[in-house]
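Quarterly update from the structural biology core.
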Amino acid sequence: MIPSVNPSGSDTRGLLYYLYETGKYEDHTDPHLVASFDGMSPDPGRDPSATLTDLQQLLDQPVMALTKHARPAKHVWHTSVRADPGDRILSDEEWADIARRIVAATGIDPGDGQPGCRWAAVRHADDHIHIVATLVTEDGHRPDDFRSGARAQAEARLIEKELGLRQVAPGDGTAAQRPTSAERHKAERQGRERTAREELRETVRRAVAGARSDEEFFDRLAAAGLLIRKRAAPSGDLLGYKVALTDDLNKDGEPVFYPGARLAPDLSLPRIRERWAGDAQDVPAARRGDAIRTGPGSPAAARRGTASAVWQAVLVVEHSEDAVAAAHIAAAGEVLDALAKTSAAHTRRELRDAATAFERASRSHVRAVRGHDRALRQAARDLVQGGPALGRGEDGATTAMAIDMLFFLITTAAHWHARKGHAQQAEAATRAAAHLRAAYQAAAAQPLGVLYQRGRRLSRPMLQRQTVLLREALPELAEQILAEPGWYALAATIAEAEAAGHDPASLLSGAVGRRELDTADSVSDVLVWRLRRMADLPADASGVPEHGAEKGPSAMRPVASRPTSSNRYRGEEAAGNTR
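Predicted structure, tokenized:
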């Protein structure tokens, strides 16, 4: 059950008109009162003789009784209380009791003989109610509604338990502001999939990913087509900014601007500047090596560098102090945004959904110490500068490699949040991991299929020798790996690594020693990407000479495509599954 408090309205009748309107909104059916401050308020929905003006005047009476100069400019308090989609349909009587408990808990109408405000609860859909109140008590004072949103949330948790409803993870005040009902309905009228606030939040997040300066950040916003207003001090120093969509207009035909802080707490200009305050300007040596091998500034090079940076970040989140771990988790969100922005069509939707879900997991009350996360921020920058990937060849294979590594980092973040008691963040990271799993399946099918077929063409002596090697190097995992369809792709990778002069036993031991295999459904798949990254092998093997392949007629037999698992990873990535 989710209460959403909006404490600063000024038009009681306008709000009532929206609540009782049935012609514009599909979910507005049979609007009627379920409760009110006196239990006898006029109901324009069920009483033909009652009007909206009657109800408005009754609610506003304590406000109008004050002298004009004493009336508060913002006197309307409004909250919606929405049940979870999986909950049963509550009766009017149950919603009435919920409304009375919410207004009592928030201080709007505390009861026990204390003066309260006038309020009414309107139901126009099966799954929620709206409570409207005017913020002057019967004795002419302001109610004690301090932190009414947090108090409403706390009461909602008690109501859920008592009524047997789904237990919603409690918030901690670090979530981005939800779109209002008016914003949602406006988006529906305009035919938008999302509200303007949500579109702007995603665009600003992507503009921040890997940016190093105010100038670069604002150039990216402009390139994305946003309208920008900057706020400067008399000295000329830049203090803040607002953004708007060109086609999101108010009733006067003017663009609707949102300050960064109203999009999300970490999108204010001061918080954004913290990100690049500790950035190093030089590309790490390992990243330069990737660029030399794959091509300077190429999408594939950026994805290889991302896989390396993400892999190191997994260990940091697991073992570093909280402030450093929080910085890496926040920077992981930048990497997801950058990868989604530059992804190929067949992975774009899942990666975008993963980035959107993880946005909630990127913030908590553990304040990140920026600077330690510069490798991840550099990875995000490289992804943006490398540009869109085509999704084929080395681009596609390195995308699968990067997503594979990101899955483990996001899962590690879910575990970290769960240990800290950050329920909403842990749940958000788990949802992001599920989207990454789907994106991985789309990205990995072709390159792993090539490796699978190559492994099937290895000579029998070569496969037998590698089987012995696997059992000696990884005795606890060998039988599981040999039973997986991905074993042939791993066998082909081991053959390539050995031909390139590497010790396959050491590579295997090193890959497994870095942990995070307990969330993998296909251990062989994970080891393929780890070995190819560690041995600096091309992620796409389609153009690489084969080693140890069978000769003669048997090598010409058609080989079926690699079997794929419908569930690349087990459900053990759930936030509560700590190791």
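The beta strands are 2-9, 32-36, 76-82, 119-125, 128-134, 227-232, 238-244, 258-259.
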